Every structure is written in structure tokens, then in C-alpha cells.
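Lecture 7 notes: from sequence to structure.

We start with a single chain of 284 residues. Read the sequence below before looking at the structure.
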Amino acid sequence: MGSSKNSMDSIKLPDKDKISNLKGGYVNSRRVYKENGIDDFTNAVRADFSEAAPIKVPERTEPAKKEEDEFIESSRAKPMPKSNTDTRYVKLGGRSVARWKFFKIAAIVLVVIIVLTTFCPPLMLSNSEGTTVRKNIFENKGISAVKEELLKNENVYNIDNMTSEKPENYRVCTLGIQVSNYTPFKTYIGGFSVLSCDPLYKDKIVSVSIDDPDGYTIPAFSVRTVQVNVLVCVTEMNDQQLTDAITSLILKTTGLKKGLGGLPGMPIIPAAIFVSDALEYRLS
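Now the structure, written as C-alpha cells:
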């Protein structure tokens, strides 16, 4: 084929060796850096920090703790002082109490006092007054008649404890009960009975009675000593056993009432009395 004027034989590929030797040359408008070779065609400017001066960032300083607390305290709203003329509060000693709370407490205390004075028994204590009476309970009577009389007139603990018909085998042990009535009500005591005793002497206690068959009346705000009689079967007992039997007793009231003036009394809670261990009893 013959050569043509428009032949492309004159077009040649770039010489890489010549391009590599260029200094500050350009290929396709891209900067060529000899030190990086032909493969780096970027024209981005690269920063050099080797000679850059260090920049000092100022440090942040915190305010002192004390100053911060003082600022917070000063910024808080202070409560308004209570007025001495505020009717919502009652002054008790060195402190103020809300009026509603004061009246609530006062009402509760008043109710408790009313309940105690109305329904609770007076204070009763066994004193050291006590004697032993040797009494012929079978005078002009047989054992059946005596049992019938005891069941009718006294508070019997166990009638079957009367196992002997000999008068010398029985003793009446008396003891004093001090009754303190500190209430505005008069107190009526119908009698006393055995609530508990030492199991060793359960077969020895027969009955309990009082001197006044109509009972005792304790006026308001007064103190009175009443006498209680305990019938004991002393068969095969000595002085110490008799004393232990009586002092182990716990008595309770019967028919206990409270009333005002001539009004009939209202039944109240029975009272329990521990017999004093200072008492001493002898068979003779």
C-alpha cells in the first residue's frame, strides 16, 4: 500500500524516559513530580508540617468549688420566716406545731384518758396484812351442808377439795387488798375469786370470800383496804407449804362496776391481783 499524506504513521507514544527527566513539565495539564515517578499525576498541594510552629491551646480553668457553692446558695430563694402571729401554728416550748396536729394529738390523749378512767379497773395491790384463822366450819353442820353453803355464798375454786370432815384440817387465811380509785367514778367490788395458783396446791384451795356479803364500794378519788378470806384444806401440810400455797395465788375481782351518784354501775374490765410474797402463815 502506498503512503498517504493523512497517514497516522507519524503518531508515536510518549517516551516515558523523557517525561521522567522533565523538571516542572506537564502532561495532560497535571504536574509531574520526578521524585514520585510517572505514576503520580495528582496536582494536589501537599502540606509540610516539619517546620510548622506549634500552636498553644489555652487551658480551660474551672471556678473554685467554694465560689460555685456560694453562687448557688445566693441564687436560691430563702424561705420566708414564720410570723409569730400566724394562727396556723401553736407555740410549744421552742418549736411551732401546726394547729390541726396539736388538736389531733390533744383529742387522742383525751379519748385515751376517758377510756382508761371509764372502763379500766382501779389499781389494786396485795399488802402484807394477813392472818391465819382456825375456824370450825362444821359447827352444827355436816359436810354436805357446808358445801351447799359455800357454793351459795362464796366463790368456790374446787368444792371437791373438801375431803375431810375434821375441822382441824381447814384454815381460813386472810389477806388485805389495797384499792386505789383515782377516777371521778365510784367503784363497786362484788367479790374475789382464784384466777390461778401453784399446781402443787390446786387440790388444797377450796373457796374465796369477803367479810361484807354485799360487796365493797370505793368512793371516787379514795383509797381503801378490803379483806379477802381463802379457805384451805391443810391436810398433810406444814407452815411453809401453807405460805407457799397462799402467796402463789393470783386473784381476780368479780362483779366490778363503776358509776356516778345514784346511777346503776356499769360493768368494767376485771382486775387481777398477785398475792404478796411477803405474807407468812402458820397452822397454829
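DSSP finds five helices and 16 strands in the chain. Keep this in mind for problem set 3.
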